[in-house]
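Hey L., structure's done. Input below.
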Amino acid sequence: MKCSIEGNNVKAFGKAIHALARIGEDLWLDPVEKGLALRAVNSAHSAYACFLFSPLFFQHYSPRLSTQTLGTPVKCQLAIKSVLPLFRCLATIERNVDRCEISISTEENRVVFQFYCRHGIIKTHNLSFQESEAMQAVFPTNLCPNVLKAQAKLLGDIARHFPTSQEEITLAISPVRVTLKNYYEEESDRAMYTEMSLHPDEFDYFQVGIDSHITFCLKELRGLLAFAESHGLPVCVHFGSSGKPVSFSLDDMPLTATVVLATLEESSSAPPSQTCPTQTGQTYRWAA
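Output:
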C-alpha cells in the first residue's frame, strides 16, 4: 500500500488518529479498493471505531504494491502509542507539513510515514507492525427503530456540559423529547449531576420507533464528536432498546466514520448500573 495526503487533509488524518486513540491501544491500517480504513477496538470489545478515507481523499492511493497486484493488501496492526506522537501537534502540522506519504514495507514489516515539510525538510518514521485482521462491528443500522441526526456543534455543546471525567451517560428518547444525563453506579453526595432535555425540533432528523433509554460510554465518543465539529459534519445516531449497540456515524464525500458502542443491558430485577469495564472488569454486551 502507498498513499499520499496533501494540505489540510494531513491534519484531518491526524484528527482521526486522535479520535481512534480514545478507543483502543491498537490501530489497524486496512487498505482496500474503496479506500484506507483505520480501525480500533477497545480491550473489553465494548467500543469499535472506523474511519474510511476514500481514494478521493488522497493525492495518490494504491492499496497494493506493484509486486502484489494479484495479492491481498496487507492489514497492519500498530501500537497506537507509536502512531499518535507523529500527529501530536496538529497546529504544527497545519503550518509546516505540505504532504504526508504512507507506505507499507512487507519485507521489513514496517509502515513508513514521511512528512514533507517546508524548506525541503523530510521527516521519516519507520514503525513496526504485525499482520492481523481487525475486528469489525457488523451492525445493521437500517433495523434500528430510533434515528437522530444533529449538527456536530449541538452534540459537541452537549458533551461539554458533562465533566471530562464523566465515563457514562444515559440517553432517553420519547416522541416529545430527548433527555441526556450523567450516570453513576452508586449515588454519591460528592458527584455532580447534570441533566438536559432537547425538543425534537433541535434535530435535523428525528425518528422514534420505541421509547427507550440507553447508557453508554461518553469518554470513547468524544473523539468522533470533536472530529465532526471541527469539520462541520452532522452526526447520525442509530439505536434501539437498552442492551443493544448504539451507532454514531458521519458521512462526507471523501470519508465516513463510525463509532459503535455497547450499551448497558438492564436487569429486570434491579435498577440499571454500569461502570467502566476497564476499571472493574464488568463488560458491556457486544452484539453484531
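Residues 8-21 form the longest helix (14 residues). The radius of gyration is 20 Å.

-- N.
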